[in-house]
């Protein structure tokens, strides 16, 4: 299999990687939609739907994180490891925070670490568009600021958590577009 001009070299290292990236694009899209839909089913009104969509949204991050690791590893090994560990922590703490509001600050903090790590890699290396990297880093700063505000004031974190989950959903949908674009799949 030869690489076309719009394909990334790390994708061509393994003949199975283009298909895995296509699947990750689909999972990223579905996870994003689940994160956008979950807040519509508030936990107090439709708890089973809220938690099912949360589980779907966070659970489907795992194949996305695996595909990101493949992209990151050739350009920055330590960043790839940190991005993968932080991403898996986002899944774990995100699921926990959906059930217990006490975990929201921890979930926001690890999401900030994850977004900062991968966003910085993209901004510096171009593994994904640099502008998307800078935007991702800005989202990380928002997460860190919210955790700091919580630490100093003790205000509830549930109100900012819902919009940030929806932003995570939109972010995942944009990531899905970049993944699909980089598979070299036919367009139009």
The helicity comes to over 70%
Q: Into which percentage range does the β-strand content fall?
A: under 5%
Over the alpha carbons, how many angstroms does the gyration radius reach?
Answer: 17 Å
SSE sequence, one letter per element: HHHHHHHH
What's the number of domains?
1
Count of helices? 8
Most strands sheet: none
Count the E strands.
Answer: 0
Low-pLDDT sequence parts: 1-7
Categorize the overall geometry.
globular
Which structural class matches the secondary elements?
A: mainly alpha
Q: Give the end-to-end Cα distance, rounded to a whole number of Å.
A: 22 Å
Mean pLDDT rating: 87
Describe this structure in words.
It is built from eight helices and no strands. The protein has one domain (9-180). Helix 3 runs antiparallel to helix 5. The longest helix has 25 residues, at 158-182. It is mostly helical and 188 residues long. The protein starts with 8 loop residues before the first helix and ends in a 6-residue tail after the last helix.
Record the SSE blueprint.
Blueprint: H1 9-12, H2 17-37, H3 47-59, H4 61-72, H5 77-99, H6 104-125, H7 130-153, H8 158-182
Summarize the structure in short.
The protein has 188 residues and is mainly alpha-helical. Helix content is 77%, strand content 0%.
Which features would summarize this protein structure in a list?
single chain; 8 helices; mainly alpha; 188 residues
């Amino acid at each position: 299999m030869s690489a076309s001009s719009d394909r990334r070299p790390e994708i061509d290292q393994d003949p199975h990687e283009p298909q895995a990236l296509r699947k990750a694009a689909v999972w990223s899209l579905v996870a994003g939609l689940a994160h956008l839909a979950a807040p519509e089913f508030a936990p107090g009104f439709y708890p089973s739907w809220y938690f099912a969509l949360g589980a779907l949204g966070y659970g489907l991050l795992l194949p996305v994180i695996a595909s990101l690791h493949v992209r990151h590893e050739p350009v920055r090994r330590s960043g790839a490891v940190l991005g993968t560990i932080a991403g898996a922590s986002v899944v774990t703490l995100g699921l926990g925070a959906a059930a217990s509001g006490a975990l929201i600050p921890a979930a926001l903090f690890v999401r900030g670490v994850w977004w900062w790590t991968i966003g910085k890699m993209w901004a510096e290396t171009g593994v994904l568009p640099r502008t998307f990297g800078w935007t991702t880093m800005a989202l990380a700063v928002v997460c860190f600021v919210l955790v700091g505000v919580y630490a100093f004031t003790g205000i509830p974190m549930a109100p900012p958590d819902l919009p940030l989950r929806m932003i995570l959903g939109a972010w995942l949908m944009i990531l899905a577009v970049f993944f699909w674009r980089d598979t070299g799949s036919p367009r139009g």
